[in-house]
Design brief:
Length: 307
Amino acid sequence: MLAQRTLKTLTTAVGVGLHSGQRVELTLRPAPPDTGIVFRRIDLPEPVEIAVNAEAVTDTRLASTISRGQAKVLTIEHLMSACCGLGIDNLYVDITAEEVPILDGSSASFVYLLQSAGIVTQKAPKQFIRVLKPVEVREGEGDNVKWARLDPYHGYRLSFEIDFRHPAVDNTGQAVVFDMSEGVYARDIARARTFGFTKDVEMLRANGLALGGGLDNAIVMDDYKVLNSDGLRYDDEFVKHKILDAIGDLYVVGRPLLAAYSAFRSGHAMNNRLLRELLSQPDAWELVSFENEALAPKGFAALQPAW
C-alpha cells in the first residue's frame, strides 16, 4: 500500500513575515491519518484551526491566504510546496502570528525542517486526486493573456513559462518543466527564491506589504539588474520559483494531484481559480489510492531524498 505520511517528531522555526514584518514562531507537529494540513493560530485568545482546502483560500494578492472566520494565515505557499515536494499528507502547523515566516524566501528551509523532524509512513492509504479530462482557466487577450491548465497524466508534471519583459529576468530561462517522478524537488526546485522589483517596494510598503522583505529573503532587482551580491541560485531561478509557488498553491486542494499542470504567466489567483474549476466539475476528477505501490506513478513511493 502506498501510505500517507506525517512527521516523526515536532520541529520549530522563528522568522519574520514577508509582508507583515512581524516576528513569528512556527511549530510543525505530526498529525493522525486523514487530518490533512491544518494551521492553528495559537496566538489568539481561543486558538483557531484552519484546515487547508481550495475554498479556505480567501486572498491571493501577492501570496495565498487562508481564513476561517476572522482568523487568517498569509503566505502559506512555500511551506505547502515543501509538504507536497516531500509527500507529507498530515501536519499540524502551530503559528504565533498571521503570516508564515519567509525564512530565506524559498522552500529550502521548510524542506530542511521537515526532513530534520523525520518523515514516517502511516497505516492509511495515500489518496490522490486524479484528473480525468482537461480543465483550463484563462484571462486577458493578446499580449496580456495568462492561463493555467490541468491535463490527465499518470504522475505529476509541471511546466511554466514567464514573460516579465525585464532585462535581468529576460537573460535567464523563461520556461521550465519539472516532473516529480524524474527530478528531486529539494535539489531542483526548493532553493528558488521569491523576487521583486525596487520600483514596486515603495508602493507595497505604503499598502502595508513587503515590510519584512530584503536581500536576505528575496531576489531584488532595479530597472536593469539583480542587486543581490551572491547572484542567482539557478540559471532559471525566476521561473523555478513560479513552479515552486504553483506546487504550493495547488496542494491546497488537500491531496496530491495526478495531473500535468501547464501555465503561462499564472499566479496565486489563477492557480486557485483552476482548482475551483476542477472541483466544480465532478466528471473531471476522481479520488484514487494504490494498494500495490508498483502501480503508483514512479517517484511517489520512495521517500524523497535529501539534497
